[in-house]
Amino acid sequence: MIYEIRTYQLKPGSLAEVEKRFGAGYEYRKKYSPLAAFWHTEIGPLNEIVHVWPYADMAERTRVRAEAAKDPNWPPKTAEFIVHMQSEVVVPFPFVPALQPGKMGPIFEMRYYTIKAGTLPDLIKRWEGAVPARIKLSPLALAGHVEFGEANRYIHVWAYDSLDQRAAIRNKAREMGVWPPPGGGDSLLTQANKILLPSSFSPLQ
After folding, report:
1. What separation in angstroms does the CA of 59 have from each of 66, 68, 75, 98?
2. In the chain, N or C: fewer CB atoms in 10 Å?
3. Half-sphere exposure (CA, 13 Å, Cβ side) for 59?
C-alpha cells in the first residue's frame, strides 16, 4: 500500500469554489479508485487543500491515473485557482493500519519531519515500540516515510475531537512518558505542522 499526498496552494478566496468543483468531479473520479481523505488547512500554510489517494503500488497509480485522465469530468476544473502543486508518495510504516472511511476527527494535525540520512530504520523501530501506548490517547490516521518527493522526510497525521483535546492529549502523552518515542532527537533536522479540516465529501471525517 502507498499513499499519494497531493498538496495544492490556492489563490486567496477560492477555497469554497475549489472544494465545490472538486467534490463534483470526484463523483466521476471515484469509480476508478477511492479518495482516502480531502482536507483544507485551518492553521498553518493558508489556502491549501490536501488530498490523499491510496494505491496498491506505483503500477496501479499509473494505470488508474491514465484511465481517469480520459474521463471528461476529471480533473476538476480548478486550474485557474491553483498557484502551486506538490505530490509526495508515502509508504506507511508497517504497523500503521490502513486509512478507512469514517469518523476520526474532525481536527487533523499533519506533522512532517526531515531526518538525517540513514536514520529511518531506527526511527521506525522506535515508533513501533511507542505507538501502541500513544494511540490509546488519540487515533493515528497515517504515518510513513516519503518514498518519492522530499528525501529523508516522514509524515504523520493525528486525529482529535477539538483543538482543546489536542492540547490536553499532547500534554498527557508527555507527562505519561509515552510520547514522543525516546531517543533519536539528534536525527531530526526540521519539523513543521498544520491543522486540517475535512471537506464535506472526504471519506475520512
Report:
1. 11, 14, 20, 19
2. N
3. 0
Mean residue pLDDT of the chain comes to 97
Name the CA radius of gyration of the chain, rounded.
17
- Judge whether 108 and 141 are in contact, CB under 8 Å: yes
Of 49, 52, 71, 73, the residue nearest 61 (C-alpha):
52
Q: For residue range 38-97, what is the model confidence (pLDDT) as tens digits?
A: 999 999 999 999 999 999 999 999 999 999 999 999 999 999 999 999 999 999 999 999
Count other C-beta atoms under 10 Å from residue 200's C-beta.
9
C-alpha to C-alpha distance for 136 and 159, rounded to whole angstroms: 12
With cut-offs at 50, 70 and 90, classify the pLDDT of residue 185: confident
The beta-strand segments (E) located in 93-184 are: 107-115, 140-148, 153-160
User: How far apart are the C-alpha atoms of 34 and 107, rounded to whole Å?
Assistant: 22
Stated as kind and residue range, the H or E segment containing 89 is: strand 82-92
Instruction: Take residue 151 and report the three cell numbers written for it.
Output: 528525501
Q: How far apart are CA 99 and CA 7, in angstroms?
A: 18
The answer to whether 77 touches 17, Cβ cutoff 8 Å, is no
Residue 66 grid cell: 491514465
pTM: 0.95
Q: Phi first, then psi: give them for residue 105, nearest 5 degrees.
A: -90, -130
Which residue has 500503521 as its cell numbers? 96
